[in-house]
Write a structure and sequence with these properties.
16 helices, 3 domains, 8-stranded mixed β-sheet, FAD/NAD(P)-binding domain, alpha/beta, oxidoreductase, globular, binds ligand NA7, 546 residues
């Protein structure tokens, strides 16, 4: 093991691993997991690829990056002191505020002393004889640990498009995920953005404010809805603070841990006028209400989904001056809410500006990137800056990029070739002592709410094992198969499962990611927690502990 500050001295036998637990990633999940493991008295090291804490909020510093979750539902809930000390500035915080928040948390709880930055994990191999993991960093440094905990996020493996000539471009270019820390000036610049997902929508809206000229290359338009962000006054923050117990309780009760609860009514049990009024109200309110707080059948019933999609299409037509441009911005191959809904702050209006034009690459496909710009079937464009908002190899991508080897050297990437197999999204059979915070097959949603629960459950399991001197924690094959079958069954009948998106594991830029797979649990967080609680209450007998 390398000599590093903060590495505890070995006190027992020569075979004791360097650490009791290694956590991969110092983002929202990793920071909290470290905090919890320290409470158990474990010797922990966190390996973080970046130079600072924050994960998603460290890397994604692209223009316009901000929450679509209400800030006051996104912060950690575990510390009353923290809740009392931290004032959110905006209802939907921008990236700099969130990065500041996570740094504040790291400092407040003195987390940095166990975090090793600029340490990207390249491989992790299980050793049966010592019941431990060998962890190998990209630069060759090696460590051993009893427990290996992944906190590597669901959207952390960014992907560039497989367009010929990407590397030949002579101007500035960047994927949004790897945005530089130094400010980038767009004034008088000819800028291209490729990609119109949630990231592209935020980036495009911001860049359009100052760019000399902006060209948006769109493959699939999105059903965007207004964010309605606003500043939080001191008085408002005090009210929010007083309401924190109810806020967090409500988030526990909703499907996706958001503040927005599904409306129990069906689209068809109200009159068309009531329906329209309800949707107008949702459209005028902040956040994901229109997606998460809508009628209960809009994401399962084709007719209901068509009606809400038509409502959103009308809104797009109202907001865009040129009808031909409006038609290009209206999705045709998927219904509202079946892909992740981007929340926007004036996105559609930017297409009314004279410095912005939209290229539908279904009509004129991108042929190649050239040294000076982008060539499509119809034209050659010159640019100073190309921004790739082309997304992620989601959910399993970050796992695929680490060479995880379990019992008998089995590769996790190969095991998951046809889709992930997990127990509760936390454990994998054949991979003892590997625990995943927010792994594949966990529910998605308001991330920190779910991540806190996941890290707490992992902590409870570790505590249970340590109290009994158990040093080998593994899912059974029956358990993993059972959960995987349940996850697949829970997505049946949901319209999102019929649509290509990162939520169904599609990434056309990654080999082997062209077939839809069920990547996450769609049964809702309350049901997920109930299942997890039952496993714990039964003394984890569904696991193989030794
Ligand atoms: P997304 O939602 O996966 O969006 C990626 C976008 O990039 C999407 O519009 C893609 O079109 C487009 N794309 C990807 N590859 C290409 C190529 N080769 N050519 C043209 N266009 C391409 O990623 P985001 O970063 O926006 O959002 C990810 C999540 O992060 C988001 O949901 C939030 O939860 C935070 P496509 O739709 O595939 O046709």
């Amino acid at each position: 093991m390398d000599e590093l500050p903060g590495v505890p001295e070995r006190t027992s036998t020569e075979t004791a691993p360097d650490f009791d637990a290694v956590v991969i990633g110092a983002g929202v999940s990793g920071l909290y997991q470290l905090y919890r493991l320290r409470e158990l008295g474990l010797r922990v090291r966190v390996f973080e690829a970046g130079t600072g804490v924050g994960g998603t909020w460290y890397w994604n510093r692209y223009p316009g990056a901000r929450f679509d979750s209400e800030s006051w539902t996104y912060g950690y809930s575990f510390s009353q002191e923290l809740l009392e000390e931290w004032d959110w500035e905006e209802h939907f915080a921008a990236q700099p505020e969130t990065e500041r928040y996570l740094n504040y948390v790291a400092d407040k709880f003195d987390l940095r002393r166990d975090i090793q930055f600029e340490s990207r994990v390249a491989a992790a191999h299980y050793q049966e004889d010592t019941r431990s993991w060998n962890v190998i960093l990209e630069d060759g440094r090696r460590y051993t640990t009893g427990l290996l905990i992944t906190a590597i996020g669901v959207l952390s493996a960014a992907t560039m498009p497989t367009i010929p000539g990407v590397e030949t471009f002579q101007g500035q270019s960047c994927h949004t995920h790897y945005w530089p820390k130094e400010p980038v000036c767009f004034e008088d610049k000819r800028v291209a953005v490729i990609g119109t997902g949630a990231t592209g929508v935020q980036t495009i809206t911001e860049v359009a404010k100052t760019a000399g000229h902006l060209t948006v290359f769109q493959r699939t338009p999105q059903w965007c809805a207004p964010l309605h962000n606003a500043k939080i006054s001191k008085e408002e923050m005090n009210r929010i603070r007083a309401d924190y117990p109810e806020i967090f309780e409500r988030c526990q009760e909703t499907f996706g841990c958001f503040i927005h609860a599904t409306d129990p009514r069906s689209t068809f049990e109200v009159t068309p006028e009531e329906r329209e009024a309800f949707w107008e109200k949702l459209y005028s309110e902040p956040g994901f209400g229109i997606w998460m707080g809508n009628f209960r059948d809009i994401l399962v019933d084709r007719e209901a989904n068509k009606l809400i999609s038509d409502f959103l299409a009308r809104k797009i037509r109202q907001r865009i001056k040129d009808p031909a441009v409006a038609e290009k911005l209206i999705p045709k191959n998927h219904g509202f809410g079946t892909r992740r809904v981007p929340l926007e702050s004036g996105y559609f209006e930017i297409y009314n500006q004279s410095n912005v034009n939209l290229v539908d690459i279904n009509e004129t496909p991108i042929e190649c990137i050239t040294p000076s710009g982008i060539k499509t079937g119809g034209a050659e464009y010159e640019f100073d800056i190309i921004i790739y908002a082309t997304g992620f190899d989601a959910i399993t991508g970050a796992f695929d990029r680490i060479d995880f080897r379990g019992v008998d050297g089995v590769s996790l990437k190969e095991k998951w070739q046809d889709g992930p197999q997990t127990f509760l999204g936390i454990l994998v059979d054949g991979f003892p002592n590997l625990l995943m915070v927010m792994g594949p097959h966990a529910g998605l949603g308001n991330f920190p709410r779910a991540a806190e629960y996941s890290a707490d459950w992992v902590t409870g399991l570790i505590r249970f094992a340590r109290e009994r001197g158990l040093t080998r924690i593994e899912a059974t094959t029956a358990g993993a198969n059972g959960w995987t079958d349940h996850v697949i069954a829970a997505s049946e009948g949901l319209l999102f499962a019929e649509v290509d998106s990162w939520m169904t594991g599609i990434n056309r830029n990654v080999e082997g990611k062209q077939v839809r797979r069920i990547m996450r649990y769609s049964g809702g967080h309350p049901a997920f927690r109930e299942r997890c609680e039952a496993v714990a209450a039964d003394g984890y007998r569904e696991l193989a502990l030794a």
